Amino acid sequence: MFLPIMRGTLNLPAVRDPEVLERLDPSGFFSLCLRYQHHLALCGEMVGSEQIHLGNRVRDMDFDISRLMTVMTERQKKYAKYAEKLGKVHELSHQLNRCHMVLNQTLESMETLNNSLPLEERLEPFVWTTG
């Protein structure tokens, strides 16, 4: 059976051995703790510098995103104006097509009316020229 050096750590009746405490040297454990503390300090510094670096990048990204949002908002407004103008052009084109259709109907009605007149009262045929 293996027992620890300091038997008082077990729930067994402790055998007090004063020589054991004198033979234990805490300097090795202390140096191990110092090395671990140094390692944790280095890790903490590295994490801190990475956090600062990431914080700077996030701040730069926030600035870039806000600038990009401003540019995109301006473009959206500009394109909304263009879309409104295109809508007006489409509406005007539709009105011109209606005018052309009404004009053709009017020309047909004029020709029908002219043909229904007696020959001596008829007008010469109407010719629509553009240009």
UniProtKB/TrEMBL annotation:
Alphabetized UniProt keyword annotations: Lipoprotein, Lysosome, Membrane
UniProt keyword annotation of Cell cycle present: no
Pfam family, one: LOH1CR12
Domain of life of the source: Eukaryota
Location(s) in or outside the cell: Lysosome membrane
InterPro entries: TBORCS5
Topological type in the membrane: Lipid-anchor
Family statement drawn from the similarity comment of this UniProt entry: Belongs to the BORCS5 family.
UniProt cross-references to PANTHER family, sorted A to Z: BLOC-1-RELATED COMPLEX SUBUNIT 5
Name of this chain's protein: BLOC-1-related complex subunit 5
Organism listed in the record: Timema podura (Walking stick)
